[in-house]
Amino acid sequence: MRLILRILGTWLIGLALVLLVVDGTKSLGANALVFTSLADLWTHLHPPSLVAVAGFFESRFFADLLDAALKAALGYPAFAVFGVPGIVLALLGRAPRRERFLRQDQI
To answer: What is the pTM of this model?
Structure first.
């Protein structure tokens, strides 16, 4: 299970770094900070799926809460939306800590 978490976390961090480089090159070209929101990225890649996800959330029990969460997530920069869960998954998948300190007789 830890291996799957680490692999998924690494992929998400890698995707976040690619998106950060894209935003960095756009910022250099525009001579100002430019962040691509998740909504812009999703609309650029596949607009019908964004409409389908919004329609799916509208048919659920907590439709208002899900709609507010979706709109909040779509407003964040795309690299942050992928990077933060990637870091969390990578940290969850790491090996448990060993004892760091040695007793006097172990030296």
So the answer is: 0.81
